[in-house]
Amino acid sequence: MLIKIDSMKPARGQVLFVAISLAALYLILPQINVFHNGISRLHNINWVYLILAFGFEIAANIFAGLTYYILAKRKLKFFRTVIVQFAGNFVNRLLPAGIGGIGINFAYLKANKHSSAQAASVVAVNNILGGIGNIALLAYVSTFLSKVYDKLEIDKIHSNDKLKYIVIVIVAVTFVVALSK
Questions:
Q1: Within its chain, how far is the Cα of 48 from the centroid?
Q2: By percentage, how much of the chain surpasses pLDDT 90?
Q3: Is the full-model pTM beyond 0.70?
Q4: Which position among 1, 3, 19, 77 has the lowest Cβ density within 10 Å, counted as fewest Cβ atoms?
Q5: Which residue blocks in the chain are alpha helix, DSSP H?
């Protein structure tokens, strides 16, 4: 019995599944050691900082919801908008470069009777404002708070990682400047 070569071709979905699985393995396996180190550090946690971090996270999501509430052309329910911001944070951990938050906010605005153009412009303006805010915060920290450098223990970071962080900052600044023109 002969097997046709055409019948041995994998379906597009199978190829996509294998590609996504390999990408996930490539991204997840190196993280396992980092995860173990993070768990071991929980024994020495400073609870005051943890509570402050949760408080700031809640405040950040409330202000993100307020930003969309103010920017939106059509009226949004504030509490629901804040919940969408919390959901967007979780989705952002799964997808790169904030695409998850962009997508969920766009879909939320579309579900609240915004046109595609209106939703896209609200999300774009929000991201530009966020970029400007992050650059302003970075400028403030780097200019006025020199003690932050000592607290971050940047000297302990490998030189390759320093280069990655510098490139990320340069790309982010370039991106925001390019969007503002």
A1: 25
A2: 32
A3: no
A4: 1
A5: 12-28, 31-41, 47-71, 78-94, 99-111, 116-144, 147-152, 159-180
CA 94/CA 155 separation, integer angstroms? 30
What's the N-to-C CA distance of the chain in angstroms? 66
Q: In 10 A of CB 179, how many CB atoms?
A: 12
Overall size of the chain counted in residues: 181
pLDDT digits (tens, 9 = 90+) for 86-95: 998 888 877 7
**Using one digit for the tens of pLDDT, what is the confidence trace for 65-86?**
999 999 999 999 999 999 999 9
Closest CA to 67 of 139, 131, 141, 117: 131
Structure tokens at 69: 């509430």
